[in-house]
Write a structure and sequence with these properties.
This protein has 235 residues and is of the alpha/beta class. The protein is built from eight helices and eleven strands. Strand 4, helix 4 and strand 5 form a beta-alpha-beta unit. Helix 6 packs across helix 7 and helix 6 packs across helix 8 (198-213). It is globular, with a radius of gyration of 18 Å.
Length: 235
């Protein structure tokens, strides 16, 4: 099926140019110049992925994402102002799957859209090759991960993760005690030679810990080995 991409930006030039580029790649697009209108439209007819500008009047991208995450795991890419680290950190902390700084390459944006859609299909078990056996449930101590249902629990409590968070955690938990470098985690969560800097992986790890500590204040299963990377401890 053709994926539908929603674009939300108050800059009509960006809406037009990106929409044309996406349609040329075979995507269906919906464009919105207002966050409130987009939120209502998403509830009535959800797209497959949304690209949100952060700086918008009335309802900015951060508020739109916050309200989306109350009910949906819709994959989201943020458009941020160049070098605005605060926006990037906030967006990732609130559940965005990725971000790209303006001015941006349309080719890079399209590559990231494709990568996130493939990750979503893989994690939800809806990609091509549906005849393959479902991935087994992964159990590591108090952690249980069900890739087919994109479901994660810790000591029986549900933990809601984005596709990116799920794949990073799965990479760590698949081999407990083994240190995974940032580059290895990037390879697991980002494909197609897309550049992602260390801050992005670190932000995902911080958000993973925060989510697990909401159900277990003593959660410490994701360990940092400074200068080396991260590992999962299932004791």
């Amino acid at each position: 099926m053709t994926a539908t991409i929603a674009l939300v930006d108050d800059d009509r030039n960006i809406l037009t140019s990106v929409s044309i580029a996406l349609q040329a790649e075979g995507f269906v697009t919906r464009v919105y110049s207002d966050g409130e209108v987009a939120l209502k439209a998403f509830a009535e007819n959800p797209p497959d992925l949304a690209v949100l500008d952060i700086k918008m009047p009335r309802m900015d991208g951060l508020e739109l994402l916050r309200r989306l995450r109350e009910k949906s795991r819709l994959p989201v890419i943020f458009l941020t102002s160049k070098d605005d680290e605060l926006d990037e950190a906030l967006g990732l902390a609130m559940g965005a799957d990725d971000y790209i700084a303006k001015p941006f390459s349309q080719r890079l944006l399209i590559a990231r859209i494709r990568a996130i859609l493939r990750r979503a299909e893989s994690a939800l078990g809806t990609g091509e090759g549906g005849g393959e056996a479902a991935q087994p449930v992964l159990e590591r101590g108090r952690l249980q991960m069900d890739p087919a249902r994109h479901r994660v629990t810790w000591h029986g409590d549900n933990v809601t993760l984005t596709v990116t968070e799920f794949l990073i955690l799965e990479t760590l938990a698949s081999r407990p005690g083994i240190v995974k470098t940032r580059n290895q985690l990037m390879d697991a969560a980002y494909h197609d030679d897309i550049y992602v800097d260390d801050r992005t992986i670190d932000s995902h790890i911080k958000r993973l810990r925060r989510k697990f500590r909401q159900v277990d204040k003593e959660f410490d299963a994701i360990e940092t080995l400074y200068g080396a990377g991260y590992r999962f401890a299932d004791d």
